[in-house]
Amino acid sequence: MVLERIQKENDIQNIAKDELPVLAQEIREFLVEKISRTGGHLASNLGVVELTIAMHLCFHLPEDKMIWDVGHQSYTHKILTGRQEGFDELRKYGGMSGFPKRNESKCDAFNTGHSSTSISAGLGYVEARDIRGEDYYVISVIGDGALTGGMAFEALNNASNLKTNFIIVLNDNQMSISQNVGGMSWYLDEIRTADAYTNLKKSLEKAIRKIPSGGDQIMNHLRKTKSSIKQLFVPGMFFEDMGITYLGPVDGHNIKELVRAFHEAKKVQGPVLLHVLTKKGKGYLPAEEEPSRFHGTEPFDIRTGKPLKKKEKDTYTDVFAKVMYEMGAKEPSLVALTAAMEDGTGLAPFHRKYKERFFDVGIAEGHAVTFAAGLAAGGLKPVFAVYSSFLQRGFDQIIHDVALQNLPVVFAVDRGGLVGSDGETHQGIFDLSYLSMIPNMTVMSPKNKWEFADMIRFAIGFTKGPVAIRYPRGTAYDGYREFRPAIEYGKSEAVFEEEDIALISVGHMFETAAKVREKLKEAGLNASLINARFVKPLDEERIAKLAEDHRLLVTIEENVESGGFGERVLEFANRMALDVRILNITLPDDYIEHGSVDMLRKEVMLDEESILKKVLTVYAGMQHEIAMKKGDQ
Ligand SMILES: Cc1ncc(C[n+]2csc(CCOP(=O)(O)OP(=O)(O)O)c2C)c(N)n1
Ligand SMILES: CC(=O)[C@@H](O)[C@H](O)COP(=O)(O)O
Ligand SMILES: [Mg+2]
C-alpha cells in the first residue's frame, strides 16, 4: 500500500510520480470505507483527492498555509498530514473533527465550518507574512458554492491590489449541497464550456495570424483590448478585470496538470485564482450519481450506497416541509427562502410545487434576510428557513432591515440547540439570545411535532412583525399529543399544575423536563410542568403566578446562559421583586465540540439525570435553609 508510507506531513514528497494515481485510488477507498461506518462529508472529499495531493506535492507543511473553505472537504488533507487513525473516531465525542482545527494539527492553518471565509483569512495571513517579513505560501481553497457568499467577494475586492503572492484555488464542481445557483455559477459554466469555443478561439487566432500584414499585431491588440471579444481569448475576465490573475480551467483530476498549474501560480506577484474543475463524488458511483445525498451522509452500505439505518419517524424538518407544502396552497402570498440549504431545511417539496414562490439565494444568509424584508415590504409573506448557526450571519440584517421596520418575516430556525457531529461551528446554541434581545421580534419554540405544526401556521398568519420559530435537528418528539391548546400570542402552556417546584421548559427540552418531573414524583415531589412556548414575549403573568404558588422555579433550555430564557425570567423576577428561588439550567458559556447529541447533553449536564440531581440538590438546600431558620426562631 502506498498510503501506508504516509505517516506525517510532507511524506508524500517521497512517493514516486507513477505511484500517485495509486495513492489517489487508495485514498478514495479509505474514505469510502471509513465514512460508510462513521458518516461524514463524503462527496466533496472524493472530489478533491487529486487536488489535495497536488497541493501537498507543491507546498511544504506546516510552513505554507492551506485554508479550506467550509473545511468539510479537508479529509484528504488530514490523511496526508498523518491523521489516518483519527478516521475511526471521525466526528465522535473526543475523536477527530470533520473540519480543520488548529488545535488538532499544526498543518491546519485556520478553523472553518461556516462558508466563504477562506479568502479573507488567507489575505490576513498574506498581509501578516509580508509585514513580518516572512516567506511562505498561502493557499485558500474555495468551492463554487462558497463563492456565492458575499464575504468571498468582499475579500476578492480587498485582495485585488495586493502585490505579493496569494493563491486562491476555486474548486468548481458545479455543486453547492444542491445544484449551485446564480450568476457566478452561470459565469463559471461558461468558462467550463470554453472547450466549445477553445477550438473556435484557436482557429480564429490561426486565421487572424495568417493575415499577411499585421496579423500578429491585430492578435496582440485583441488580447489587450477591454472589449467583450477578449472573452474569447482570456477566460476568467471577471477576475482579471479585478486585478486577480486567472489561471485555468484545469482538470482537477489530473495530478500532473495540477502540479504544473501550481508552479505557474507560485510565480505570480499578486493574487492569482486557479480555476480547477472537479467532480463531486468522484470514484464512488452512488456519490457521483447522488452528490447531494452524499454531501453529508449517515453510515451506509458500500455496496448499495443505501443508509444503514431506516428512518422511522418524522424529523422536525419533515414536519416543516409538510406544513409549508400545505400552507403554500392556502396562502398565495407565501414565499419560501433558503440560503443553499433546500434539502437540509425541507424546502424541496415546496420548491417542486410552487416554483415561482421559492428562492435559493446561494450561501448568502445576510442577503436572504434583507431580501425577505423587501419581499415582506412588497406585500408577500416570506418564510426564511435557515440553520440556527448560519443565521448568525444575518444578525445586523435582522435588526436593521426586518425588526426596525417591524416587517412580518418568518424565520424558521432549524438546527436550534445541539446538532451533534458537526461540532462547535454548527451548534445552534446562541439563537434564543441573539433573537430575543431584538425589539419587535417574537421568538417561539415547540414542545413536540404537533405544536410545531401549529406554530408554523400561527407564524404565517401573524401580521404584526417578525417571528422566529426555533426547533432542533433530528426526530420530532411525538409525546403529549393530546396537550394541544390553541397557540395564544405570548402565552405559555401549563401542562401540570402542582405546588412547590415548577419546571419551565423551552421547546424540545420539554421531553427531558417531563421525564425529570416523573423522576421527582418517584422521589415524592410533585412538580408543575410549564411549556414556555414563547421565549419572547415572556409570559410574565404566568411567571408571577408561579412565583406565588411555588418556592422553586427551574428553567430548562438548550441555549447558552447569557441572554437566554432563564436570564429573562430572572430579570423579570428581580424587577418585580418576586419571592421565589430561580434555578436556570442552560448550556455553559463555552463552545461545544462534536459528538452525539446524547453524549454532549451528558457532558454539559443537560440530560435527565444531571438536571434531576441539580433540582434535588437545590431543593434540599432550600429545605435545609428553612429548617435552619425555624431552628433560629
Ligand atoms: C454560512 C454557511 N451557510 C451554509 C453552510 C452549509 N454548507 C456547507 S457546504 C455547503 C456547500 C458548499 O459548496 P462548495 O463550496 O461548492 O463545496 P463542495 O461541497 O461543492 O465541494 C453549504 C451550503 C455553511 N457551511 N456555512
Ligand atoms: C458542512 C456543512 O455545513 C453542512 O454540510 C452541514 O454539515 C449539514 O448539516 P446537517 O447534516 O445538519 O444538514
Ligand atoms: Mg461545489
UniProtKB/TrEMBL annotation:
Thiamine diphosphate binds at residues 72, 113-115, 145-146, 173, 284, 365. Its cofactor is Mg(2+); thiamine diphosphate. The keyword Transferase applies. Its EC number is 2.2.1.7. Mg(2+) binds at residues 144, 173. Pathway: Metabolic intermediate biosynthesis; 1-deoxy-D-xylulose 5-phosphate biosynthesis; 1-deoxy-D-xylulose 5-phosphate from D-glyceraldehyde 3-phosphate and pyruvate: step 1/1. The keyword Cell division does not apply. One of its GO terms (molecular function) is 1-deoxy-D-xylulose-5-phosphate synthase activity. SUPFAM superfamilies: Thiamin diphosphate-binding fold (THDP-binding), TK C-terminal domain-like. CDD domains: TPP_DXS, TPP_PYR_DXS_TK_like. Keywords: Isoprene biosynthesis, Magnesium, Metal-binding, Thiamine biosynthesis, Thiamine pyrophosphate, Transferase. Binds 1 Mg(2+) ion per subunit. Binds 1 thiamine pyrophosphate per subunit. It catalyses: D-glyceraldehyde 3-phosphate + pyruvate + H(+) = 1-deoxy-D-xylulose 5-phosphate + CO2. Residues 314-479 form the Transketolase-like pyrimidine-binding domain. Belongs to the transketolase family. DXPS subfamily. NCBIfam families: dxs (TIGR00204), PRK05444.2-2 (NF003933). Catalyzes the acyloin condensation reaction between C atoms 2 and 3 of pyruvate and glyceraldehyde 3-phosphate to yield 1-deoxy-D-xylulose-5-phosphate (DXP). Homodimer. This is 1-deoxy-D-xylulose-5-phosphate synthase. It comes from Drancourtella massiliensis.
